Amino acid sequence: MSTLTLPRLKQVAADRPISTLCAVAIAPTLALQTGLLIGGVDLFPGKLAELVLLTGLATLITSWIGGRSAVRRLFGGLTKWRIGAGRWALVLLAMPALTVGVAAATGTLHSPDHGWGKEAVTYLVLFALIALTGSLWEETTWSGFVQLRLMNRHGLLVGSMLTAIPFGLIHLPLAFEADGWTGTTWSEALINWAFLLAALPFLRYVIGVLLVDTRGSVLAAAMLHASFNASGALSVVPDGWQYVPALVVLSVLVAVHRRLSDRSLDDTHVEVDVEPASAMAVRPERHFSTRK
């Protein structure tokens, strides 16, 4: 890349940070992961490359927009752990409890082979592994970089739904992960995609509520993301679909709580810092708010 084109690239990325990240990250990720699946290779290298690409791009674009202070602010969301006992219960316990509840209500709950205590430990181990190896870094990009900007511009509901679109696109290859490219029929893939696309708007909405209520705790968003994934892997729900309606129930409960607390289900004016005020002063055309 020549130095003549780099300033233009930086300007485009600064003017359209989300579009730039999605344009650069999604297509290569889909191509790489699909190629691995067709080749019968384990998908882990593709998922690792996805995390590196997403986090790297988010960091690079953020540094172009606001320098080191903006990068510190991006990763600062991972250190916001003082979110209250109630919200910690929500991000850690709500999904497994509701998943088990849905399974019990639908007659699909299996008794744990080694008791509920071991099942709880298994969930916590899965949760920790998923958080450390995936969701903390994913949500640094999707919550800290993308969703906060979209919510600041469009409000809680619309910003969350818009985030679900690229978030869903980049996860499409996962429909083939369990049984591989040749072992997954297109009807099975369509069913997997239907569950995925049905769940993601609800996941992004609950994450959006957490981001608003915690003033940008990406840590809380990542914990909920990890809990969602770990709940779908519980041995007491081997069919693995119960966590999707459980997420819908959680979203309804969150919405009802907001209504009972006299809070809007869709905060149309959301202000959560995403970059320093100095960056706004340099580029006043930007559409997201950074007032403290």
Helix content: over 70%
Number of domains: 1
By DSSP, the count of extended strands is 0
The succession of helices and strands, N to C, reads: HHHHHHHHHHH
Q: What can you see in these coordinates?
A:
The chain is built from eleven helices and no strands. The chain has one domain. 72% of the residues lie in helices and 0% in strands. By secondary structure, the protein is mainly α.
Key words describing this protein structure:
mainly alpha, 72% helix, 292 residues, disordered C terminus
Brief account:
The chain is built from eleven helices and no strands. The protein starts with 5 loop residues before the first helix and ends in a 10-residue tail after the last helix. 72% of the residues lie in helices and 0% in strands.
Could you give the topology of this structure?
Blueprint: H1 6-15, H2 17-38, H3 44-76, H4 85-105, H5 115-154, H6 156-169, H7 180-183, H8 186-213, H9 218-232, H10 243-260, H11 277-282
Helix pairs in contact: 1-2, 1-3, 2-3, 3-5, 4-9, 4-10, 5-6, 5-8, 5-9, 6-8, 8-9, 8-10
